[in-house]
Amino acid sequence: MSSNRAEVDLNVNIKKATNTDESAPKRKHVRACIVYTHDHRSSKAFWNGIRIQPLQTDDVMVFKALITIHKVLQEGHPSALRDAQANVNFIQSLARGNNYTGPNQGNHGYGKLISEYVRFLMQKLTFHKYHPAFNGMFEYEDYISLRTVNDPNEGYEAIMNLMTLQDGVDDFQRLVFSSRRSCP
User: Which pTM value belongs to this model?
Assistant: First the structure.
C-alpha cells in the first residue's frame, strides 16, 4: 500500500475514532492508528491527522480524541511517546476549548473529565520524558531488560515517580466513575 493511501486510511480511522457518537471509540479504528505507527515506525502522521480534526466543536469528540491519543501512547510504536512531547501544546489546548472549566462544561458535560484527562496525560508524558526506558504500557520486564541501575537512588526515584503517576490514574478513575454515577 502506498504511503499516501495509508495516510488517507489513517485519517479516516482517526475521524471515525473521534466521531460525535457518545460511545467509546471503536477498537478497530483505534487499533488501525496503533498499527499505522508500528508499520511506519513513526506517529507523526497520526499527530498531523488528529490535529486537523474539528475537535473543538464537540466535547465528546475531544474526549474520544484523548482516549485515542492515550491508546496510541500506550500501545503504539515507541516513537509515539517521543513525538507526543512535540505535541504537548496541542494536547493542552484540548482542555481549553468550549469553556470546559466554566459553568457549562462544554456541550455534553465532559468539561471536567477532559481537563483531568489532559492533566493525567501531561503527567504520563512528563514521566516518560524523565524515564524514557519505560514503554507506554510500563512493562517491567522490558524496563529491566533495557536498563541497569547502578545508583539505587535512581531506581528509588523511578519508583516514586511511578507511584505519583499511579495516584494520577486513581484520581482520574475516581472522577470518571463518579461522573458516571451522576449521569441520568
Answer: 0.83
